[in-house]
Amino acid sequence: MFTPQTIKGCQVKIDIIGGGPAGMYFAILMKKAVPADEITVYERNGPDDTFGWGVVFSGKTLANLRAADPESHTEITRAFAAWDNVDVVHGKEKISIHGNSFSGIARLQLLKILQQRCEQLGVQLLFRTEISDFDSLRTNCELLVAADGVNSTARKQYSTHFLPRLDVRPNRYIWYGTKRLFHGLTLTFRENEAGVFAAHSYKFNQTTSTFIIECDQETWEIAGFATMSDDETRQCLEKVFAPDLDGQPLLSNNSKWINFLLVKNENWFFENVVLIGDALHTAHFSIGSGTKLALEDAIALFDCFRRTGTVFDALSEFELTRKPVIAEYQAAAFESMLWFETARKYMHLSPIELAFALMTRSGKVDYEDLKRRDPEFISTYESARKLFTGTAGVPPA
Ligand SMILES: Cc1cc2nc3c(=O)[nH]c(=O)nc-3n(C[C@H](O)[C@H](O)[C@H](O)COP(=O)(O)OP(=O)(O)OC[C@H]3O[C@@H](n4cnc5c(N)ncnc54)[C@H](O)[C@@H]3O)c2cc1C
Fold first, then answer.
1. Which of 214, 228, 256, 348 has the largest CB neighbor count within 10 A?
2. Other Cβ atoms within 10 Å of 196 Cβ, number
3. Atom of ligand 1 nearest to the CA of 50
4. Residue 116: partners with Cβ closer than 8 Å, 6 or more residues away
5. CA distance to 43, 125, 375, per residue, from 129 (Å)
6. CA-to-CA distance for 347 and 196, rounded, in angstroms?
């Protein structure tokens, strides 16, 4: 029978499943605060295995990381590629919108920095260790953190407690890299006889960019991806984005088409088990928030342990205070995701109108924000609207 553990002032054992950003960052913060705690991270992959290419952070996230752990923040920012523009490419035109501060880092490099910080502080990292027996793990520690990613087995195992809601979205996407450098977050739209393709790309170091391609189910079927090999898929997409890749190939990292999985959970913890990061919630990659939210979950959970005295109080506080923050992010990410799911209906817009529609798609940025960030962009947009509609100023909602 579980009893709410008093943890303040006691040495505790914390087990964490998943050596991604959420799990390792939580381990770092807890170990730093109470070096005597026994903290173990179980990771089924090796220290150098990873999926994908780069991830992005906003300026605000970086400030949170600096306040939480200056040491890893210094290492992360040292490895960064920074930019302030979003570029929208439609047909032959590229529209740049400035005043959007973002930075990119290779996912593997971020994980390496967090691994080193864990080792420095004395967190035990057990690689190539897959956890399947959650019950015996949780009965032998004060706190079990399930940071085991979007397909969390812990969430499945305790689904009657967490009550997850999983929504498989209709669009398909595939995550490539390329040596063509995109200086800024670049959103490129290309049409062919099959339909509409959107690419989300940005450089994340001096040599490589992330290049994520997304399309709707109809486009995917007409293009014939269902029967193509991985190489044929890559070659087909290189043709679609030939005007943008400058002759550089798309680089695969065992890249496959996937459907985005939207994850929500009714309950965030039960007894001494808590979900964090992608296991707990996802937000569409078009607002680039997955890693940010994972790291900020770790900060929020750590803060709850600092403020309260028992595991039960800390986990209750975490659910109470963090849930509204995540709900707001997921709402914005949902609007952004819907925009991309229906991208074909915007293709008749001129490049400047498309850029405006894109920048305001999530409801988090409006006309006034854009005017403040990039007055030149808004004045070009206004001139175009006057030309098309005979009106200027704030567009109707
Ligand atoms: C196409 C795409 C683009 C993205 N772009 C961005 C972006 O630009 N910016 C951004 O911030 N985020 C981005 N993300 C999201 C980001 O990758 C995740 O949101 C983030 O990694 C979540 O961190 P996490 O620690 O919760 O989970 P993960 O990073 O998934 O880590 C979970 C870990 O748990 C391990 N694990 C799972 N089960 C077990 C088990 N039973 N036993 C032991 N170990 C286990 C896994 O091996 C994994 O290492 C993107 C995601 C996708 C798919």
1. 214
2. 20
3. 49
4. 75
5. 5, 10, 53
6. 8
Neighbouring CB atoms inside 10 A of 154's CB total: 24
Q: Give me the pLDDT at residue 52, please.
A: 66
Tokens of 56: 């992005």
Cα(353)–Cα(357) distance, integer angstroms: 6
Q: CA Rg, the chain, in Å?
A: 22
Name residue, tokens 């109809």.
218
Query: What pLDDT is stored for residue 364 in this prediction?
Result: 85
Q: With helix as H, strand as E and coil as C, how does 14-72 read?
A: EEEECCCHHHHHHHHHHHHHCCCCEEEEECCCCCCCCCCCEEEEEHHHHHHHHHHCHHH
Q: What is the strand order of the sheet 54-58 is part of?
A: 54-58, 102-106, 81-83
Tell which residue, 42, 210, 55, has the closest CA to residue 140.
42
Report pLDDT for 1.
35
Amino acid at 147: A
d(CA 147, CA 27): 11
d(CA 267, CA 319): 8
Q: What residues flank ligand 1, with Cβ below 6 Å?
A: 17-23, 42-45, 55-56, 130-131, 147-149, 153, 173, 175, 212, 277-278, 285, 288-292, 294
d(C-alpha 388, C-alpha 350), whole Å: 10
pLDDT for position 348 = 95
E strand segments, the chain: 13-17, 38-42, 54-58, 81-83, 86-90, 93-97, 102-106, 124-126, 143-146, 164-178, 185-192, 195-203, 209-215, 250-251, 258-265, 269-270, 273-275
Q: What is the Cα–Cα distance from 90 to 335, expressed in whole angstroms?
A: 21
Residue 34 CA to ligand 1 center (angstroms) comes to 27
Top mutation candidate among 15, 29, 44 for ligand 1, by most atoms within 8 Å of CB: 44
- Phi, psi (rounded to 5 degrees) for 55: -125, 160
What type of residue sits at position 20? G
The ranges of the chain with pLDDT < 50 are: 1-3
| pTM score over 0.70 | yes
- How far apart CA 155 and CA 161 sit, in angstroms, is 9
Q: CA-CA distances (angstroms) from residue 224 to 37, 219, 228, 366?
A: 54, 9, 7, 38
